[in-house]
Each structure stands twice: as C-alpha cells, then as structure tokens.
Amino acid sequence: MADPLYLSLWLPNSEIQESLARTLSVMRQFPFSKVQPGIMYLALHPVSWNEATVLEQRFRPGVPPEQAVLLASEQLHEDYAYVFEGYWDLWTSAEKENESELKPGRVRFLVHGTEFEDGVFEQEGNIEVDLGLDSPFLQEDVALTEETQSRARANVQKLVEFTTNAEKASGAASRLLWSESEENLAQKLIARLQKVQ
C-alpha cells in the first residue's frame, strides 16, 4: 500500500529568516521537473494549519526558488509555516498494464517557524519536504522486469542524491527520511526486490 514519504531537516539555528535561507539552499539541490520547472505555488499559514492562509500565490509557469523565497520573506513570523510546491519527474505506473512512464510528481517544501503549531518543528523539522507517495520508488503496481527495476532504481537514485545534497546544502544538524506508517523505505525496497528472486 502506498505510503507518504517525508524528509525532515533540523537546523542548528531555528530563526525563521535562517530557515528560509536554508530552505532556498535545499530547493537549489532539487531536480525540478523539465515539464513543470520551478516553484508553482506558495502559501503562508499563520499559527496553525487550521487557520486561513495570509498569502497564497500560484505561478504559471513556475518561478525560480529565489523569487518565491523573496516573496515569502516579506512576511517573517516565527508563528508562520511557509509552503512551496514544485514537481520532479519520476517513473510511475502507466495506465497500460505492467508499464511505467515519466511523469511530474508534486513535492512540498514546508518551513516551520518555532512558534507555529505549538512547536511542530521539534518533531517534523525546521524544514520538512513532503516527497509524495513511496509508490514510484517501490513500483508495486507493475511487474518487476529489467525495465521497471531500472526505472525504480533511477527514482531511488534521484531520491538518495536529493536527500544527501539537501542535508549538506542546508547545513542540517540532523535529517530523517520517514513515512507516515513509519515503515522503513530501505526495508520495503529490499522486500520488494526479493520477490523477484
């Protein structure tokens, strides 16, 4: 069953201005979609996720991360969360049986102020990257052939490179790649590949 996948980064300095600057560093490492490049959406949430946004903006076409962060930084508040959306190209199950196709998948970069949602940054990170579902990495909806294994590997390689580069670029004190069900992605990958043997 598909499971949402996240990357959490905890920073040595939690001030919102610093967090936004480091989020920009993370977004600069991100392999944006060739079909839908750049940041496509920006939202600022005050106090908690239950409150109405104070700013929402869609960009068609997408804008460079620098432009989106500059716009967001006009309203710096420790009790805000900042959401940036972009896309990356991943191999996903196609409508034809046992085939996959390269399609844009949505990714959300969330920046938690220290006073937002009762200090949620302590559990979910100063920067949290919602990577979408784990299904493109596991390719559970298609038969594992040489081609689908190769495409799953390409997706996993993109994920590993991004998470490694994001950690380095952000100067994070710690990072965690996790899923909502708390199942270990590496163990799920191993189990999936062992079914082929």
Which tags fit this structure?
197 residues; alpha+beta; seven-stranded antiparallel β-sheet; 7 strands; 32% strand
List the helices and strands and how they pair.
Layout: E1 4-10, H1 16-29, E2 39-46, E3 55-63, H2 65-72, E4 80-93, E5 100-112, H3 121-124, E6 127-133, H4 135-138, H5 146-170, E7 174-179, H6 185-194
Antiparallel strand pairs: 1-6, 1-7, 2-3, 2-4, 4-5, 5-6
Helix pairs in contact: 1-2, 1-5
Produce a short descriptive summary.
The protein is built from six helices and seven strands. The chain is α+β, with helices and mostly antiparallel strands and 197 residues long. The chain has one domain (4-194).
Rg on CA atoms, Å: 17 Å
Order of strands across the biggest sheet? 3-2-4-5-6-1-7
Overall number of structural domains: 1
Summarize model confidence as the mean pLDDT. 90
**Estimated structural class:** alpha+beta
- Strand content is 25-35%
Give structural notes.
With 197 residues, the protein is an alpha+beta fold. It has one domain (4-194). 33% of the residues lie in helices and 32% in strands. A 7-stranded antiparallel sheet has the order 3-2-4-5-6-1-7. A hairpin with a 6-residue loop joins strand 4 and strand 5. Helix 1 runs antiparallel to helix 2 (65-72) and helix 1 (16-29) packs antiparallel against helix 5. The model has no long low-confidence stretch (mean pLDDT 90).
